[in-house]
Each structure stands twice: as C-alpha cells, then as structure tokens.
Specification:
The complex is a heterodimer. By secondary structure, chain A is mainly β. In chain A, 0% of the residues lie in helices and 60% in strands. The model of chain A has no long low-confidence stretch (mean pLDDT 92). By secondary structure, chain B is an all-beta fold. In chain B, the strands form two sheets. In chain B, strands 2, 4, 5, 6, 9, 10 and 11 form a seven-stranded mixed β-sheet that branches. A four-stranded antiparallel β-sheet of chain B has the order 1-3-8-7, with no helix packed on it. The mean pLDDT of chain B is 92. Classes of the chains: A mainly beta, B mainly beta.
C-alpha cells in the first residue's frame, strides 16, 4: 500500500529558529515528491523534487530528496510568524496519483 | 489569471441527502483532480479527470462520483451522505496529466448533520 509519512506532526518554534520537516514514503513507481504549504484552505506549491541529492531552494526554504532512503526534508531557516502553516508532502506515482502525508503543523511564535 | 474556483464555499447537508460540488480550473488547464481533507486522514485522492475522462480513482465508495465537461469544468457528486463525509473537498488543476504544477482551489467545506 502506498503511503507517505510526515514527522513531526506538529512543531512550535520561536522566530529565528531553523526547522527541519521530514517526509518518508513507500510507493510503487515513484515519479516525484512535492511540498505544499497550507495556511487556510488551498495548499500552495513550494517544491517539486525528482532527483536525489539536488537541493531546491527558495529564499529561506530548501528541500532535498533521497531516493535511496525514500525520504525528503524541508528546511526553513530564520523562521518568521508568517511561516506558521501546515506543510504537506505529496508523492506522485506513475499512475499520476498524488499521495499526501497528514502534514506537519508548524507554529512560529514571536 | 484567475485561479481554481470551487463552489460553493460552504455547505451543510443532512444524512442521506446528495450533494454536487463544482470546480472550474485555471484557463487552459485540462486536468482536474479531487481530494478529500479530514483532520484524521489528511488529504486523500478521490479521482482525476482529463479530457472528460476519468483517468484515476482513489479508494472511495461508489457514492463518490464525478465528471468533467468539455470546458474542463468538473463536478463531484456524493450520494447518500454520511456523517463521515464531512470534510474539506479540494480540487486541483494542471495543464495535463504529465504536468506537475497542480494549483489548488480554496475548497468546499461540507458539513453533514
């Protein structure tokens, strides 16, 4: 059965801290791994990863994929209160299905 | 450009009723996927449509169905509603099945009482 597991389930940090969110997966016919940020309703796209070891970076956010160990991490440096959200990891399979983890709820306090 | 539009935003139904949700994709996007989001189960894939054809279906009972029209707008229908169907229903559109750039709508919050 295809599954995506995220950890931790929730995280509370202070502004300025660095956080690492984890996503491990077990799917057949892996195509890509995607990270989304969900603040209210609609998840917004952050990164798409298809190759191992290549870091994707956007401002204070970065992500990397390890296809051998079947996991990805999302790093956020110098966190701000605006980073408070649920971060979702999703894996796309060859059948073009997206399997989501349950998310990590990040709360950044001033 | 306009984003993915889902209507209605909120809906309250009673058990046993049926409901139809609508999703208008971004202009030019031909693939529409539907997801159910609940606190306990996270985001779960319902089905995907492309060119008016259902390409994939998740592990949901037959009470959940959908369709796509020639203008790529999609509807999702749930019949014989159960309390457990209460959830946020999200749709996402992309250019096509091979396009990774899914854009999500803001969802329809369905409450079954």
């Amino acid at each position: 059965e295809d599954k995506v597991v995220q950890s931790p389930l929730s995280l509370v940090v202070h502004e300025g801290d660095t956080v690492t969110l984890n996503c491990s997966y077990e799917v057949t016919n892996f195509r890509s791994l995607l990270w989304y940020k969900q603040e209210k309703k609609a998840p917004t796209f952050l990164f798409m990863l298809t190759s191992s070891g290549i870091e994707k970076k956007s401002g204070r956010l970065s992500s990397i994929l390890d296809k051998k160990e079947l996991f990805s991490i999302l790093n956020i440096t110098a966190t701000q209160t605006g980073d408070s959200a649920v971060y979702l990891c999703a894996v796309q399979t060859g059948a073009n299905n997206l399997f989501f983890g349950t998310g990590t709820r990040l709360t950044v306090i001033p | 450009k306009a984003g993915v539009t889902q209507t209605p935003r909120y809906l309250i139904k009673t058990r046993g009723q049926q409901v139809t949700l609508s999703c208008s994709p971004i202009s030019g996007h031909r693939s529409v996927s539907w997801y159910q989001q609940t606190p306990g189960q996270g985001l779960q894939f319902l089905f995907e449509y492309f060119s008016e054809t259902q390409r994939n279906k998740g592990n949901f009972p037959g009470r959940f169905s959908g369709r796509q029209f020639s203008n790529s707008r999609s509807e999702m229908n749930v019949s014989t509603l159960e309390l457990g169907d209460s959830a946020l229903y999200l749709c996402a559109s992309s250019l096509g099945p091979e396009d990774y750039g899914y854009t999500f709508g803001s969802g329809t919050r369905l409450t079954v009482v």
